[in-house]
Every structure is written in C-alpha cells, then in structure tokens.
C-alpha cells in the first residue's frame, strides 16, 4: 500500500465523510471555524488518485515559537481495524512535521469496551468497583487491544486520563450512547428506566413544551448554561463560542446543529444543543435552572431530542462524556445516573495519543502544561 497525505478541499472532505455514513462532528471542515485560536486544514489520504481517508487537523501556535501542536480531535477518519497502521500514520506525521508541528495528537474513534446500563448501576454501590475501568465489561471490542499495541510499537504515547473523574484534557474517554439502529421509538422508550418514563409523563402532564430555537434564542440558552456552570463547577465558554458554532455548522449543513428549549408557564427551564453528522447524533451541551425541577424539563427535552434523532434516521444517540469514578460523593455521579437512565451503554474509547515529532519540544511542552 502506498498512501499519500495532502491538503484537500472542503468539498472533497465533506464528500468523503458523507460516503462513510458518519464521522465525529469534530472531523468536519466547519469545526475548524468554531476554533479561531487554531489554524485548520482538511487533509486526505489518497491511493491511486482516490481519497481513502480524511481528517480535520487543528494547529495551535506556541507562544514565542514558530512551532505548533497539531491536533486531530476524534480523528482521523481512516479504516482503523484493517491491519497495519504504519502506512496511514507515517505520512500523517511527515505532513504535520512539514507544517512545523512539534507534537501530533489524535483521538482514534475506536471503542475498546462497553458496559450495559444495569452493569453500571450495579457497580455504583459495589465497594470493589471504585472506577468504571475496574468493572468487568459486557463487551470487549475485538481488535482494540491490538490497535493500542500497534500505536505503542510505532512510538505513540497514550495521553493522561485527566485526573480522577475520567474526563481527559481533550475529548472524553468515557461516554454514554443509546443504540438506535434497528429499534423502533417504542422500543427505545421501553428501554428507559422507570424513573425516566415517569418523569417524561410528569413533564407532559405539567404542560412542559419543548420547541426548537434559532440563533436569537442562544442568549436564553446561555443564561441557563452559566447557571449550570456555577452549579456543576466548570468554567463556561463565552456566548460568542455558541454563536460561532451555530453560524459555522449550520452554514455547512442546516441539520448539523439544533437548539432545543423546554418552556413552562412562559419561562425557559432547560435548553440543549444537538449535533448531527450522518447517522450519529450527539447531545452536545445542556443547561438548566434549579427552579421548578419538579416538572422534569430535562427529561422532556432529552426525549424530544431522541425522538427527533430517531425520526431522522440516527443509528446512535450519543450523550457524550461521563465520569469514570463510581464514588457516590463525586459531584458528577448525578450526571452518570441521569445518562444511565436512558438504558444505553457506557463506552470507553482507546483514548488520545501523542506522537513527539520533536522529542525535546514535546517534553518541554508537557512540563509547561503540567505546571499550568
């Protein structure tokens, strides 16, 4: 196999992703416009003149150095399970090196293990299971272990897990997903736990109305998002980030991003964004107020989003990151229980990996980041 990596057009990139059925929302051209602090380019692997792989590469300049961190979030989009990775990764390293990168970071979109919702629920009170990784998985994906071994043999280094809660410094390693392929909406609703089904009915009875919003509704979403950030102890992104995301993603595809708002008695109680690439749908950002929680707006908005995703042919509904810790005192446990109530699967990706293009600068950058 003789593969070349070169810059491709936006149209070529989108056509390749469309031909694959799906890819991460961070691996389409518009995502580069969401990240103005990074320089973005679309690249493709070609063989005999045909594009057989693609990626969005983000380059982050390092202060006072004309060198870059090259990052492929949840990418590249290549056939990860089809044998030797060297013909794919060596030309990628060469390409970013020529662009001035000192480190290449990527997040292979490859799942290693999965746990049923009931398995997660049973593990929480188990004193022997302090973290999800300690729990015997229901499914271990074939090929994931060999892929990890290959990466190590090729000189790639696995990134840190990002503390004790399971969220990495980049993209989450642990996520929660609800499979939709081959299932009716009634079957999906039947898979929700009893509390979820009860809360959806409560919201309907209380008169909660979930509607789709537009760009002008982003400030209302943002007010709830800021309240959520303060309550759940994370640093919020600015409003401009979401406005830029809306403009960039919907210009590429009107289906790419949607905004939902849950109203009750004239007040917005909950809001969420939904992203779509092909048959993969993500619940991206959620926000809610502490007021009137008894009318269950969060369950109502999720069920509307799941229903719409199913109607549009989604194969998977992805609720994104979950904590790895199973410590009852952890403030993220409520979010884990909420997502597990959908009856889906917890999944562990193989994680993010670094290739030190310049070992000296890679080490220096690691020290700098550890002291921040």
UniProtKB/TrEMBL annotation:
Tell me which UniProt keywords the record has, alphabetically: Acyltransferase, Cell shape, Cell wall biogenesis/degradation, Peptidoglycan synthesis, Transferase
Q: Does the keyword Cell wall biogenesis/degradation apply?
A: yes
Record-linked Gene3D superfamilies: 3.40.630.30
Q: Which InterPro entries match?
A: Acyl_CoA_acyltransferase, FEMABX, PG_Glycine_Bridge_Synth
Is Acyltransferase included in the keywords of this UniProt record? yes
Family that this chain belongs to: Belongs to the FemABX family.
User: What name has this protein been given in UniProt?
Assistant: Peptidoglycan bridge formation glycyltransferase FemA/FemB family protein
Source organism (scientific name): Streptomyces laculatispora
């Amino acid at each position: 196999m003789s593969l070349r990596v070169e810059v491709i057009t936006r149209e070529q990139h989108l056509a390749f992703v469309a031909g694959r059925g799906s890819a991460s929302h961070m691996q389409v051209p518009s995502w580069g416009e969401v990240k103005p602090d990074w320089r973005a380019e679309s690249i493709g692997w070609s063989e005999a003149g045909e594009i057989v792989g693609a990626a969005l590469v983000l380059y982050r300049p390092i202060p006072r150095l004309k060198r870059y961190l090259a990052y492929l979030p949840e990418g590249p989009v290549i056939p990860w399970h089809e044998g030797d990775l060297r013909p794919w990764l060596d030309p990628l390293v060469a390409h970013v090196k020529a662009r001035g990168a000192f480190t290449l970071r990527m997040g292979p979109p490859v799942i290693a293990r999965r746990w049923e919702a009931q398995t997660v629920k049973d593990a929480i009170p188990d004193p022997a299971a302090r973290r999800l990784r300690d729990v015997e998985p229901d499914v271990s994906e074939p090929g994931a272990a060999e892929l990890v071994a290959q990466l190590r043999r090729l000189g790639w280094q696995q990134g840190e897990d990002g503390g004790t809660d399971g969220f990495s410094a980049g993209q989450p390693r642990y996520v929660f997903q609800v499979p939709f392929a081959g299932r009716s909406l009634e079957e999906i609703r039947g898979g929700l736990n009893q509390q979820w089904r009860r809360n959806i009915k409560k919201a309907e009875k209380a008169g909660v109305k979930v509607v789709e919003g537009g760009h002008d509704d982003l400030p209302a979403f943002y007010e709830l998002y800021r309240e959520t950030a303060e309550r759940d102890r994370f640093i919020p992104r600015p409003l401009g980030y979401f406005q830029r995301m809306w403009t960039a993603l919907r210009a590429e595809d009107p289906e790419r991003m949607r905004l939902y708002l849950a109203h009750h008695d004239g007040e917005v109680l909950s809001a969420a964004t939904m992203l779509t690439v092909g048959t993969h749908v993500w619940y991206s950002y959620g926000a809610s107020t502490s007021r009137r929680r008894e009318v269950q707006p969060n369950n109502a908005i999720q069920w509307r989003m799941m229903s719409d995703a199913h109607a549009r042919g989604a194969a998977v509904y992805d609720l994104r990151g979950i904590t790895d810790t199973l410590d009852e005192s952890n403030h993220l446990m409520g979010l884990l229980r909420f997502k597990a109530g959908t009856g889906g699967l917890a999944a562990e990706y193989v994680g993010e990996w670094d290739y030190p293009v310049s070992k000296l600068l890679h080490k220096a950058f690691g020290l700098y980041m550890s002291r921040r």
